[in-house]
Amino acid sequence: MSSLWRRRRKGGKPEEINSGSDLAIPTHFRCPISLELMKDPVSLATGVTYDRESIDRWLDTGNTTCPVTNQVLRNSDQIPNHALRKMIQDWCIDNKSHGVERIPTPRIPITSYEVSDICSRIVAASGGRHDIKCQELLTKINNLAKESDRNRRCLVKNGIGAALAEAFARFSTEKHENLNLLRETMSALTWSFPLGEGGVSDLKSATSLHCMARFLKGDDLSSRRDAILVMRELVISSREDVHRLLEIQGIEETLFQAMKVPIFPGATQACLVIICHIMMLSQEKVTVRFVRLGLVDLVLEILVDGSKSVCEKALAVLDEMCRTGEGKESARRSALTVPILVKKILRVSDVASELCVASLWKVCLGGDGEGGLVEAVGVGGFQKLLLLLQLGCADKTKEKATDLLKSMNVYRKKVECFDSSFGFNYVNRPN
User: Fold this and answer.
1) pLDDT above 90 coverage of the chain, percent
2) Does residue 194 have a cis peptide bond before it, meaning omega lies within 30 degrees of 0?
3) What is the tens place of the pLDDT at every residue in 290-306?
4) Please, what is the end-to-end C-alpha distance for the chain in angstroms?
5) Cβ atoms within 10 Å, residue 191
6) CA distances from 360 to 50, 326, 331 (A)
7) Verdict on whether the full-model pTM lies above 0.85
């Protein structure tokens, strides 16, 4: 449309389009919620008509009443108002000379009954090895999801994820492996969570996980992205999947490489989630394998300019690595460890501050951590920890911060330094 629609004025007068002449939009063509021209008018049980997009937003936020009448809705059924939509379209055509474009006829949203039918058909087709039917159904599912958020929510709510997971598990067997079907199914799974117990059970099978790992190691960027996203949801949903992932040879290096060379904006964060769950729920030797790959240095690089969410997850991974002897030694060898941990205290979130203190406590106290204490004093760690205690923190964090302050105080008077972000010099540094 060449002209701009404007909101209703305070005086309640109809808005106008300035396109050489004034054109008022009929009041009954406007949505009572958005006050804009309706593109897909639907009527509720109260008889009031709204634009579908606006009333969907209203209902999705938890409202159970009609916005105009304030009556409690007996149901959330939305009946398309075809007569009004035709009138709006005719009005648009009649005012084409004023720069008004015709409202296209909207597609009818999918219903729960249609979703149930699609689920049954995709499961049946995958079990009967009907590749062409499966391909047609997967294309239909992805197209429906792309049409509107409403369709996607309806698909997820009515169990499309569990059906896709079952189909993926069947496609991944050796006797019935079709890479194109596997790729399309995995792509649809990325937006189909939560899957329910049945869906998670299908995806955590050995064949399914090996298939995802193979895609993650492959050259197709889209498939690698989908594999990472599905794996992330799986490890969040089920602890068993973590142990099954570790049965895949070379999974640690595969995840490390996926994080080192991100293939999409959320790749780093997704990989950090997977790795953190693996470290938390597995033996120490698994964490050590990640340390030996160089994960400590990679995580520190990520922390330099990572977003809040990425920093929290990176700090959680670093804290897990610092629980091991090799992890602590690797952190102590890096010139970035102490300055970054001190810098992130009180600058990201409460969770991040607690993780920073926990990692500093592990790195700086005991063993060869004396140099870290001096370095922490030099970059303002003493003042940061004092401020953290004044502002308040969890009891465990308070105990660790207090331990650090007591140890730092021994060196504080011996150290004279200047801090220019990450630059600092030491005087009278203990040997």
Assistant:
1) 44
2) yes
3) 999 999 999 999 999 88
4) 74
5) 15
6) 57, 15, 10
7) no
